[in-house]
Amino acid sequence: MRRNIKTLSIFYRKDNRRAVFWNTKILTWLAREYPRIAVSDRNPDALLVLGGDGTILEAVQRYLKKVRAVFGLNLGHTGFLASVREPRMFLPSLRAFLKGEYTTVKRMMVEVGVYRKNKKVFSAYSLNEISVQSLLGMVEIEVFIDGHIAQHIRGSGVLVATATGSTAYNLSAHGPIVMPDIKCMILTEIMDHNIPTPSIVIKRDREVELRIASFRKRGLLTVSKTKEPADVVVTADGENIFPLHEGDMIKIHRAPRLVTFAEVERNYFFKSLQEKFAFR
Fold this sequence. Notes:
Blueprint (H helix, E strand, L loop, with lengths): L6 E6 L4 H17 L4 E2 L6 E6 L1 H10 L7 E5 L15 H9 L4 E14 L2 E8 L2 E6 L4 E7 L2 E15 L6 H4 L11 E9 L7 E4 L4 E8 L16 E5 L3 E4 L5 E15 L4 H10 L3
Parallel strand pairs: 1-2, 1-3, 3-4
Antiparallel strand pairs: 5-6, 5-15, 7-9, 7-13, 8-9, 8-12, 9-10, 10-11, 12-15, 13-14
């Protein structure tokens, strides 16, 4: 359901000069064209993000509990998560958005929990993917779907992506592209030393469990925040990083909340694919 936008929050990375420029330009434009719209981080009706897909992921993580609709202006590369790709269309598209001339796509998130000796030691939400990776060597991972053994990976790791994340790391790992409004999970191995196994598309109401069977402890790297040695880590959207131990169980399932993205351009996803892969 579309809402009248009375409060708008703007997120961008301060080290992105183009984003700083557009933030100033948009603030001036809003003050002139829409003086009744307040720009504030307090209970915003919409979140305007200036940047690429990585910036949008960071914004969603930061505004997770209060974001209602995400409207992204692409200042990165292809911009699968953005609402508008071309800078020349930024202000006309933003005008259409503020006038309510848009559609919405509700995208599924996943929730991850790490259990160590039956105690939860880490949890996070992810819009793109949860990845479990060995940083410098090899890791053995047992994969379960609803308690049933599905795969045994002996390689660099595994990732569980959403449909939104299917065009990100999952695609680089040769996983399938899934339309972003399909609510599912995609299990894709990373550099398995066994016979390569195709990705598995998993229904949204299932639970994926990853058991860390073994890896070689070397302790050559540490997590900067905690200074804890890390050989194998779990990451959520590349933002939240947690070191894993042998025997840890990682449980991944559909998150209770959806993220709403606004679109002003019809068939935006397919146009993004056409641009990225040079389809003719």
